[in-house]
Amino acid sequence: MKKRLFLTILSVLVLVLAACGNTDAEKKEESASKGEEAKAIRIGYFPNMTHIATIVALEKGYFEEQFGSDVKIKTNTFNDGSSFMEAMSTDAIDIGTVGPTPALNTYIKNPKHEIISGAVNGGAVLVVAKDSNINSVKDLVGKKIAIPTFGSTQDVGLIKSLKDAGIDVNQVTKVKQAPADTAALILKGELDGAATQEPWGVNIETTAGAKLLLDENQFAWGSESTNTVVVARSKFTEANPELTKKYLKAHIQAINFINENPDEAIQLFLDHIKAITGKDLSKDEVTKAFDRLKATTDVNEDVIKEMATISKEAGYINSDDIEGLVNLTYLNEVLNEQ
């Protein structure tokens, strides 16, 4: 009896130790430990035109080129910034592209990440139903306007545009709506317009015959507004400074390719979206959307600070102190090496 009990306990201990060993191995693969470079990098992004730098870097193999064969690349796509930042906050992803507003909103509550580069400026617009009597921002009073999610960069951009026109944001009904479904709801008369990013602005114009009320130069902070940034977990960058710089080198390669070969970049974007969603996007629409944005590493910190102030005023965060959120040290080191 004692022998049987001993064997049972021994078996349980073996299983527990094996499980611990597997967990440690998995963690070691996912992230670095005490000076060792990570063996895997988990990249997050959206299947949107404003994330074209990440998409091109993946399609052109720039990440593989920079990381080498010893580092596994794992990707995750997201539909909104809230889910992206939740994944980063729970250590499910290491690095990727997202809007600055979700990044700063999460930073106030859980400052464990940093903006390390810009990715896209501009690329956000305000469209309205073609048969509406909306001809200026002031005409939005009493209307229903779609946003991707509350606290998103487009939401904050809409608030900025309303404030600039002297309109109380409470006079406009904001509706959380997936961009892919917005055109259909505008056609049904359930929405009066949308504050959105590309390629959805052009898609709504084409599919629903919507009017462009504010283009990328007029919406919120205009075409120089930081729309998409590279964000990384602080623990990841601290443990993996060289890997972080290799990511940025691939990011810069992609941006240079986009700006020097726009037609090829657009086709790579179309191919990528087809591969991951099964959807064929109109090349004419995507080309029009592409012309409304600028791929760049620039980060407009003044705009991001104002975004934080607006988010606080809107009640999304309880502070607008984002000191430490933007860290361009790695980017500047890479740029200085070139």
From TrEMBL:
<dbReference type="InterPro" id="IPR010067">
    <property type="entry name" value="ABC_SsuA_sub-bd"/>
</dbReference>
<keyword id="KW-0813">Transport</keyword>
<dbReference type="Pfam" id="PF13379">
    <property type="entry name" value="NMT1_2"/>
</dbReference>
<comment type="similarity">
    <text>Belongs to the bacterial solute-binding protein SsuA/TauA family.</text>
</comment>
<keyword id="KW-0997">Cell inner membrane</keyword>
<keyword id="KW-0472">Membrane</keyword>
<keyword id="KW-0732">Signal</keyword>
<dbReference type="GO" id="GO:0042597">
    <property type="term" value="C:periplasmic space"/>
</dbReference>
<dbReference type="GO" id="GO:0042626">
    <property type="term" value="F:ATPase-coupled transmembrane transporter activity"/>
</dbReference>
<dbReference type="InterPro" id="IPR044527">
    <property type="entry name" value="NrtA/CpmA_ABC-bd_dom"/>
</dbReference>
<protein>
    <submittedName>
        <fullName>Aliphatic sulfonate ABC transporter substrate-binding protein</fullName>
    </submittedName>
</protein>
<feature type="signal peptide">
    <location>
        <begin position="1"/>
        <end position="25"/>
    </location>
</feature>
<dbReference type="GO" id="GO:0005886">
    <property type="term" value="C:plasma membrane"/>
</dbReference>
<keyword id="KW-1003">Cell membrane</keyword>
